[in-house]
């Protein structure tokens, strides 16, 4: 099971391998949903776009850009996913090991797991933000940002090093609690489901580390992952929306210890490159507070949850695949 357990026989390097496997499989499966989610989050409400739904957006992308558009930025997405899942699982495993190796009152267990999840999410957000900035722009205008090095050069030319950390504050504020909620809810639900499924009637012969049947692990991980993904996304979604809108618009630069704030659009469409209609009408923000307040003023409170449905689909799919793959790989390594 995810997190530290005294009877577990896996080494940190084996758990690292499980995290890499989980990230790779998860990204390949969920990439199309991620592309659709980002396009919907960044779309302005205009007479042309106000009636866009998930299906109409998908059809328009298919017609204008072909099926490969659903995997724009996939190479970077794979790097992002592997780095993200590996750092989350590894930091969570290490922090829970550090804390639960001591005698801890059981009533604080869930809260401490939540704090370990926040630490994992904060570390993950810091590591993946530069890749995420390039990846988001590749999803919007593939030709303009090209591959990893071309995209990196263009982001740097537009805003220097700070441009790679656009939306970092929103990312940390979102991902820390999101990962904390995800792991703590998963850590509550998965053991409950496994204990319900596993009834050995006093004749248990399995070793403790692999006490459950693989099909039970898959089922419990899928259900717990789906629920934890839904709860964490709903709780933190407005910050996810703000983060995406910040990543195509603003840079906050810091020089010589003095904070200087320059507001400019580091992503600018080039006239010579044809921008897909699904990427033309974008909402841009200059800072986190402004992004949230303007969204509420122009779109109402529920504007903060635009694109929530596709995000929930993606969050559920991501958590189901990620946790199930991680747990399955750990099961096989123990075998």
TrEMBL record:
Q: Return any one Pfam family short name.
A: Mito_carr
Recorded hits in InterPro entries, A to Z, give:
MCP, MCP_dom_sf, MCP_transmembrane
- Source superkingdom: Eukaryota
Keyword Transmembrane carried by entry: yes
Protein's cellular compartments: Membrane
- Identify the stretches annotated as Solcar repeats: 10-98, 108-192, 216-332
Q: Which keywords describe this protein according to UniProt?
A: Membrane, Repeat, Transmembrane, Transport
Gene3D superfamilies given for it? Mitochondrial carrier domain
Mind telling me what this protein is named?
A: Mitochondrial thiamine pyrophosphate carrier-like
Topology in the lipid bilayer? Multi-pass membrane protein
- This chain is encoded by the gene named LOC112048425
Q: Which family does it belong to?
A: Belongs to the mitochondrial carrier (TC 2.A.29) family.
Q: What is its main location?
A: membrane
